[in-house]
């Protein structure tokens, strides 16, 4: 069974996911052109309130986008951030004082009952609330004070792809505007994304290497860590491969013992401080004879067993996650096809789960 290419019939297995992955360059361009003014307006209104802390709420793929926003807001804006445990309010009835706190709910569809309930509870507790969704008519949008539409367009495949990168770029532009910057560094992303997505054949060849994998480990550090978590989720939900994601630092605190020369390790190696911090981990993995697949620079790929070279020369480290996930989305799609599965319709998945 071969993968459906962009432009082929979506009746073939994986055709819808493949088509939506291929749309991402256009989606990024749309956000930069049409979404930036509204994002700046929202950021200005929130900045005027001078929030002292940020809480991010999300689940699944959106949780990884929220983790990316945590890195952005702490590093770029100097705002302490936390990832909220929604059950503290929805199940346990906690009533924290959220005065001067910004609560950001990130969700593709914005319909998860616990996310909606926790956002409403946060607003009643004094928080400034912001919904970041791909659905301006959602329940989450209705209960939040502010909204950012990530403009990804309808996403029909069950695995989220274009809504994830759209959320990353929208959150980047929001953080930049909140910090008084224009986000102009993102201007080249659509063209760079198109270059990556044009290399589907390269990823398809790599996928044959991993079609029989029984387990994978995905690691990164810094801004790349959310990419590791999202890549693991994509492999699990489309290929049914147990995929464990770790910060490189955490891998050394015990889990390194499970690494051998059979189960592949995927390392997302950013160009910047995150990549520098990962070097000691990569050395340990090579010493153990790991089957190491690297997403990163030419030099990093050449030092690994296999990999995908990213066009990130001159791209700020904080923007690289938008490119890093693209070959890994393609890999999940191609491995699923190679294993005889349909990535458009993963078993047990629903588009609007009870907890999003």
Automatic annotation (TrEMBL):
Pfam families in alphabetical order: SIS
Family matches, as SUPFAM superfamilies: SIS domain
Source domain of life: Bacteria
InterPro entries in UniProt: GlmS/AgaS_SIS (IPR035466), GlmS/FrlB_SIS (IPR035490), SIS_dom (IPR001347), SIS_dom_sf (IPR046348)
All copies of domain SIS, residue ranges: 42-184, 206-346
MF GO annotations: carbohydrate derivative binding
The UniProt record lists the keyword GTP-binding: no
Cross-referenced Gene3D superfamilies: Glucose-6-phosphate isomerase like protein, domain 1 (3.40.50.10490)
GO BP annotations, alphabetical order: carbohydrate derivative metabolic process
Keywords: Repeat
Name of the featured protein: Glucosamine-6-phosphate deaminase
Source organism: Streptomyces scopuliridis RB72
